Amino acid sequence: MIEAPPALALTGASKHFGGLRALDRVDFVVNQGEIHALLGQNGSGKSTLVKIVTGVHVPDAGARLELWGKPADLPMAAAHDHGIAVIHQDLGLVERMTVVENLGITSGYGTRALLPIPRRRERETCRKLLSDIGLDVPLDALVAELSPAVRAGIAIARATRLLQGRADHFLLILDEPTAYLSSEGSERVMSLMRAVAKSGSSVIFISHRLPEVLSVAHRITVLRDGRVADTFNASDGDHRRIIASMLGRSLEQYYPDRTEAPIARPVLQVTGLTGNRLNGASFAVSPGEIVGFAGLVGMGQEEIPYLIGGNSKARSGRAELNGRDLLGMRLGKRIQLGVVLVPGNRQRDGAWLAATAQENIALPTHLRQPASFPLLLGRERRYATSQMSRFGVHPPLPDRKVSMFSGGNQQKIVLAKWMSMAPKVLLLDEPTQGVDAGAKYEVLRILVEAAKAGAAVLIFSGDYEQLAHVCHRVLVLSHGHVVAELVGGGVTESAIVHAAQGEWRGSALPASTGLSDDEPLRRSDFN
Amino acid sequence: MLDSRKPEQHLEGARTSGRPPLGDDLEPPVATRLVTRLTSIAARIAERYGLVVALVVAFVAFSIALPDIFPTLGNLKAMIDSQAIILLLAIAVTLPLRAGDFDLSIAGLMAASGCLTAQLMTHGVSLELAVLAVLGLGVATGLINGFLIVKVGVDSFVTTLGMMTALNGLAYAFVNNSDITNLPSSLLNLARFEILGFPNVVWIGWLLVLVFWYIYERTPLGRYILFIGGSRDSAKLAGLRVDRLRMGAFLACSIIAALTGVLLAGEIGQMDPSVGSQFLLQPFAGVFLGATTIAVGRVNALGTVVALYLLVVGITGLQLFGADPWVTDVFNGAALVLAVAFARLAARANVST
User: Fold this and answer.
1) The whole model's pTM is what?
2) What is the complex's ipTM, to 2 decimals?
């Protein structure tokens, strides 16, 4: 049997920007029908590589490119006509338009600009596009009403449509399509990718989420400092191998050391907290303790941080900080008492992107003084600079706009901002979302330090591996209740998954969940 | 291929290999860094003070071209006097604009207030009581704007467009559809009394500029207002009382605009109810053009003065060259559009460096 030529074979690709080398003699091969994960930290050269393939960047002399066995000119021109399309993280859909309207927008609705759109044929085309990747969604639904996973599917369908009729073979490049999705959402997107690959097209998949990379990718290429650090079949590798090649160090160093669980009277006592989905959750957290909250999407745990430290209104229940109920207080008051929320949507809620790092970091220091008090700009600047270097924000330039920093550094700025208040309760919604591996370590290290300094740290996350590595205790929620509490050695990734899934399937938790013997899984007493 | 991704991703890949893996930003060698640093500082200075330089250049150029009529004390005074009312309105409207809301009703409110003052005072009401009445009108307008926009959630552009029209109508009602002349001298003195050669109305504008410069650049309050204008959700979660601040911005803006009406009546000595429409656009042109200088990309007080004076120098110069009066509107309209376009381009250049 003659093996089909690879969909894409790039050899000897280097790229310099001025004196800086972004890519160094990279060889990169993607086979037909393959899902190829492209991994690496920010700055490792992933984007540069993708941009060479799509013709945005011109590589240095000496690179060669073959597409489906035929040599292609570099720099690439008209990637679409060669069958290559990129789907960016933001997807580029128009929210206020329907599915059909979105699907046609990049391919002229199958007609010319001033000619009428062939409505029936257009709907037929769209229906087929969607069913090809196994997506069942009403054609007239507004994109704004759809879940993020379905939106990703529509972006994929739209990209395939763009390529149809222009080329015989397709290569889709998905740039972190799952970064902001729940675990079910990303599962859905992964099955979409599998459907695309099954049809013979190839997929390049960029992601920071290793479990899904390992489950969906056929092959993996890891870049580090502009070079290929490793490339292997997904079945031959694991977490450790990926992280080791991404970071140049091992997984043990990927998470900060776990500290001893403190024994102290709780600082935060929550009883019967009820929101839209949350239905009477009760728990207590001690100073210095790191508690994780897990559960499938929509089970209520994601509401907790916004009820305690945000603008959501609780229907009933109490959340007491040293005996004082927080829920009736206005938010500014809660913040002054040391209850701090780091929201999941950093771009929208967490940071003031248009302002400088200094202005962001100094914000809490103003809340303690009258608003008309003069600013001490010199002192503020020195303070911001020292906070930035203390929390590893790179580069430590206080005058830089927050929007100009990478995701990891933005999150460190948000944390640096709140840490100055020595918070008593720190509520974190997906604190390492959209953050690369190196910065993730630093963000978690900051949280561990905060706990050491006496903060009660509550992490709400779908990244169970991370919860298992840093938390003293993990509470699992289902249908608005705390259904399981994992403590000490019982805090493992598989135990969290089992606890979350078990209740979801409507069955009781299995007796044996693969936990270590010394700490059995406890059904919570709370409900 | 369209590259619509986040700015920091443009930096990806630009890194030397000898660095430890932590941190995720670029760090070029020292010499390159110094050069880029210096050029970026130079670029920033040019960006910050470009409009100031333009003002100086325009002034010098017209002075050379028209040495007998342009650089005279009389012309200088005339130019500054002509901007006094516009400056007051512009400073007022920086508040809601900085907080992310439009207020188109200021000129209408000023006209209505001026007419109310004129009518009351020609009927023997004292200046103090007239000011009090105008203050009431201002507070009412600010509260209505704020309530509809902040509490009900109506778009600020739409709300204040409606309010502007209603207030312009009220101006006619206050004066019974006719001009009022022969205003009492106490009112005239309020606006026209001169200190060091400039009338009160000019000094009040300059004083407001200083006050608002201080608030915007040197107090947390100024930052809060900017914060809610830039990232409203984020500001809410940071514990700021966003609704209250937005309401306050509308209220303060309306109060200043209403009191400007009193000064306007005093300055021109008579009230014509149609006066509002002449003052609608120029304050906005000044604020938007001003946002491209001093504190670049932000609505700010000093930039607003510089922009207004640049506009008046340009217009006066052209008129002294013999241009027709319509030049004023064309010039102001074009300046507004160009200012916004420049701001966009500057933002884009920032992203790609």
Assistant:
1) 0.73
2) 0.73
